[in-house]
Specification:
This protein is mainly alpha-helical and about 90 residues long. About 55% of the residues lie in helices and about 10% in strands. The protein has 2 domains: about 1-50, no CATH class; about 55-89, no CATH class. The protein has helices at about 5-15, 20-35, 45-50, 55-65, and strands at about 75, 80-85. The chain has a two-stranded antiparallel sheet with strand order 1-2. The longest helix has 15 residues, at about 20-35. It is globular. It starts with a helix and ends with a strand.
Length: about 90
């Protein structure tokens, strides 16, 4: 199982989904995002790269992509799995 799939499945189970539901939801979402090949649970190149990143790196990249600001302007919270702008920026 690719790391990105394992991580998302774990997060969904922590939110109360059953193991099978979490796996199905994660597989569907990651296939739509291009991280998994359609109809399989095999990682694409994009998925392998995302899977090798830490949660902090992925969160900062998501926030940076949405705002257009550099990743260095963000702090990561492991409690919320979110990146927020550093104060004063």
């Amino acid at each position: 199982m690719p790391k990105i799939l394992k991580r998302l499945t774990s997060q969904l189970k922590d939110k109360g989904h059953s193991t099978s539901a979490a796996y199905a939801i994660a597989t569907s979402k990651l296939q739509k995002a291009g991280h998994l090949r359609k109809g399989t649970n095999k990682a694409t190149v994009k998925g392998a790269i995302a899977g090798s990143k830490t949660p902090s790196q992925r969160a900062k990249q998501r926030a940076s992509k949405l705002s257009g600001r550099p990743k260095s302007q963000y702090n990561y919270s492991s409690r919320t799995n979110r990146a927020t702008l550093k104060r004063g920026k």
